[in-house]
Design goal:
The protein is α/β, with parallel strands linked by helices. Helix content is 44%, strand content 18%. The protein contains 14 helices and 10 strands. It has helices at residues 4-9, 27-35, 55-65, 83-93, 112-122, 143-146, 166-173, 188-193, 206-217, 237-243, 254-270, 275-289, 291-297, 299-316, and strands at residues 14-20, 42-48, 70-74, 98-101, 107-108, 126-136, 150-151, 160-162, 185-187, 219-231. α3 links the parallel β2 and β3 (70-74). α7 runs parallel beside α12 (275-289), α9 (206-217) packs parallel to α11 (254-270) and α11 packs antiparallel against α12 (275-289).
């Protein structure tokens, strides 16, 4: 009879990359969610982006306890280089067939890897699979926060293989359906082929830059199941960016303009010719270039955008 260790060696390996910066409050829960996976053939790469709190010791302790499964990485001189550089460092050291990027304040549900690996094994032409995500307010345990939990919407037909660049066009048309980064399981060789993360963008929208590159170069399978919890809390980079006026999920903001400019340049450099995608990118940029004209020409969409922005502002105040 074959042992479980022998059988696990025949399964594809998954590399989970978790960058962290001063994440001592949540990182242990993220690590434990990986250890609790029903799928056994994984490695966890904990990438320290220059932490000055107890998260460094927590990560090093787990690496010492599980030397064959969990590895601690840091930049030279314990530097803080940013999210994209930290994720790329993880990619450089990853040995798995598949990659997952799990932020230190989020958690994976126990069956995520087992289910998504099976999907990609059954879909050899797909470079990536993703599903829904729980937006997790209730991690506090307070009833008023639990009531705000919700499952993200897909906005596309699940159980479908999408060819490029269809999903990117849909994401531009409806930002509410862009998958969370931790929802993705991707073939490592595809990530390496697209050059990983763009290190010219380290903060906001660095995840969408990565997703856009995948959507433009690969077929993607969309499933219906939820595989992770995306923690909502006041110290997250997105909430801090909202407070600083750098970003907003529902209305024009500097971070999105930077992303759109990057995307337009990337599409041009890659020689991607898709009329619908080109029109969609131009329309999104036009909103920033001509805000007054946009208000006159598209009054219904303008007021809808304001209403969404207002509702989004109410949501961010939950943690203020």
């Amino acid at each position: 009879m074959k042992t479980s260790i022998e059988s696990s060696k025949k399964k594809p390996q998954v590399s989970i990359v978790t960058p962290f910066l001063n994440a001592e409050k949540f990182i242990q829960e993220a690590i434990e969610s990986v250890i609790a996976q029903t799928y056994s053939n994984w490695e966890l790469l904990l990438v320290d982006d220059g932490s000055s709190d107890g998260s460094t010791a927590i990560a090093q302790n787990y690496a010492a306890r599980y030397p064959a499964k969990i590895h601690y990485l840091e930049h030279a001189g314990h530097q803080n280089l940013g999210k994209s550089s930290s994720r790329n460092l993880g990619i450089q050291h990853a040995k798995g067939d598949y990659l997952v990027f799990l932020d230190a304040d989020d958690v994976l549900l126990p069956d995520k890897l087992e289910r998504q690996v099976a999907i990609l094994e059954a879909q050899p032409s797909a470079a990536m699979v993703y599903g829904t995500t729980l937006y997790w307010y209730g991690w506090t345990g307070r009833l008023q926060d639990i009531r705000h939990d919700f499952i993200s919407k897909l906005g596309v037909q699940p159980g479908t293989l999408f060819q490029p660049p269809m999903l990117l066009t849909r994401f531009l048309q409806d930002g509410g359906i862009v998958p969370c980064l931790c929802a993705l399981l991707v073939r490592r060789q595809v990530v390496e082929a697209i050059g990983g993360y763009d290190e010219t963008i380290q903060h906001m929208y660095e995840d969408q830059v990565y997703i856009a590159k995948l959507c433009l170069n690969s077929a993607i399978f969309v499933e219906s199941e939820c595989g992770e919890k995306y923690r909502q809390h006041p110290d997250s980079s997105s909430y801090i960016a909202i407070k600083n006026g750098e970003y907003h999920p529902c209305r024009p903001n500097p971070a999105r303009l930077n992303y759109l400019n990057w995307l337009a340049t990337y599409i041009r450099q890659q020689g991607i010719e898709d009329a619908v995608l080109h029109r969609t990118v131009c329309r999104e940029l036009w909103l920033y270039q001509h805000p007054l004209l946009y208000r006159l020409v598209n009054p219904a969409q303008y007021w809808l955008m304001l209403i969404k922005g207002y509702l989004g502002s109410i949501q961010t105040k939950l943690f203020q």
